[in-house]
Write a structure and sequence with these properties.
Length: about 60
């Protein structure tokens, strides 16, 4: 989700699993999809830093234990 930076700008950042997002084109498609969810993002430049990662393990805590 774009992170608001001031009144009219945002930054999109995150990590995508390389087992799902196999190519840079797939990453671009995901970025375009996320940007398309907000009417405020249309026709605006949104800097982004999205990395494809190889997940080796995961530790999760959801507050229910």
């Amino acid at each position: 989700m774009p992170e608001l930076k001031g009144d009219d700008s945002s930054l999109l950042s995150g990590f995508l699993d390389e087992r799902v997002f196999l190519t840079d084109d797939m990453v671009e498609a995901a970025i375009n999809y996320i940007e398309g969810l907000s009417q405020n993002a249309q026709n605006r430049y949104i800097p982004n830093h999205v990395a494809r990662i190889k997940q080796t393990s995961i530790v999760e805590y959801n507050g229910e234990y």
